[in-house]
Amino acid sequence: xxxxxxGGPGGLTLARVLHxxxxxxxxxxxxxxxxxRPQGGMLDLHTDTGQAALRTAGLERQFLAVARREGQDMxxxxxxxxxxxxxxxxxDAPLAxxxxxxADLRDLLLASLPVGTVRWGSVFxxxxxxxxxxxxxxxxxxVVECDLLVGADGANSQVRSLVTDAKPVYGGSTTLDSAxxxxxxxxxxxxxxxxxxxxxxxxxxxxxxxQRNGDGTIRLGISLQGAPDLDSDLLDGWHxxxxxxxxxxxxxxxxxxxxxxxxxxTWPRRPGVTLLGDAAHLMPPVGEGANLAMxxxxxxxxxxxxxxxxxxxxVADYEPAMLSRAAETAKRSAAVAELLTGPDAAHKVLxxxxxxxxx
Length: 359
Ligand SMILES: Cc1cc2nc3c(=O)[nH]c(=O)nc-3n(C[C@H](O)[C@H](O)[C@H](O)COP(=O)(O)OP(=O)(O)OC[C@H]3O[C@@H](n4cnc5c(N)ncnc54)[C@H](O)[C@@H]3O)c2cc1C
What we know:
Blueprint: E1 2-5, H1 9-20, E2 25-29, E3 42-44, H2 50-56, H3 60-66, E4 74-78, E5 83-87, E6 99-101, H4 102-111, E7 118-120, E8 124-130, E9 133-138, E10 143-146, E11 148-151, E12 169-180, H5 183-186, H6 188-194, E13 198-202, E14 206-212, E15 218-225, H7 240-247, E16 254-260, E17 273-275, H8 289-306, H9 311-339, H10 345-353
Parallel strand pairs: 1-2, 1-11, 2-7, 4-13, 11-17
Antiparallel strand pairs: 3-6, 4-5, 8-9, 9-10, 12-15, 12-16, 13-14, 14-15
Helix pairs in contact: 1-4, 1-8, 2-8, 8-9
Bound molecules: flavin-adenine dinucleotide.
């Protein structure tokens, strides 16, 4: 049996790709059920990573039915309210980075799996090697034996310690997340200002991102260096309309210090266990994590299918390529995170999107 710990985008994609190849797997997820917690905002799935994984999983049609082309719209401003760039997605634009609600992606993956594949309310506790696999222990005292243990249990992975001592470290920045629900009705002026997709405002030492979700919620985030003082005016001196946008939030602020794993992390091969997604390579949240988790899952699923009866050969095939891709993406993500900081972030980002413009 293949035991996948974690039913995020990575774990569910792996279960689905294995199912497509007629290989049984069980996903052990700590949430009590599919509705146990809100799934958060949108993900943009890229053609060559997240979307490629969905093609491998045979779910491209289902994805296109819920993907939000207009979610690719972008407005880029500086904190004085000057609009620097506006890109509206034409109706016939290619779906290079369409947005999908996290909840829609999860529903789509869950619906593609045989009933019972996901064992809800299963909190991984620890695991011990046995001949040809692992014995896995859960917090409620239950135990399963598996031939391959896959840690798809995210940033604070417990499975990770079976292959490496590496732990995520604070990367130096913090994001503050909140939201405005039913924005077209409750805040029509602000909703029109944000538009159909992404609305980014760059100040001297922080930026605000607003993002329209498919259900009419506007997700809000402020990213800054260090630890924020929540009692201070976070947008002091910013344009009044942008301050109004943050002030209109109707959800408590969630403070997220950004943690990362070392760039280029590797580990010696361990029989019977491997990792994928954030468990393997946690990087700054600049739009790659879910894409990469799903691509890892597709590659691991394909490798398992290509080596019938030899899971160690499959993992030996999967891990080096996954780790080297992760190292490259982590370097790129760190560079993008750097681009988003500093007093001239607005113009660095503008040049990133419009390299032909010389100022
Ligand atoms: C604010 C923010 C915005 C982001 N935006 C984007 C974006 O636009 N695009 C993008 O590609 N990425 C984005 N990311 C990154 C993305 O969310 C992650 O990289 C992605 O979810 C990783 O997928 P995963 O399957 O590896 O892990 P996760 O999605 O973290 O899933 C892990 C699962 O394991 C379960 N689990 C954890 N511990 C246990 C346990 N002990 N036992 C059983 N189950 C357990 C959890 O409940 C969870 O369901 C963003 C991240 C943040 C924080």
